[in-house]
Amino acid sequence: MECMFCYASSFNHDVSEWAGTAATSVQTDMFTGATEFNNKYTCSTTNQASSCTEIKRAWISPFPPPTLPSYQPRTTVCDVDVNRQTTVET
Length: 90
Hints:
Layout: H1 21-24, H2 35-40, E1 41-43, E2 52-55
Antiparallel strand pairs: 1-2
């Protein structure tokens, strides 16, 4: 897990419940450059996932992304007059 989140600038998820040797031992540069993670969490041991349990008081949750317009299915498939007859001469 060395450098797993290196420069993952928008990553900010809770990793404190991760288990296993890689999460409970120091990993080289695991959170180096993980800007949002480092802004949000305090790790009692640098680069040890299981020690990143405290959310910093100064951390402010980012705004949610803008809402996309809701999907409106088309009610008209086409604007063809199905009653119109066409004569083809051969």
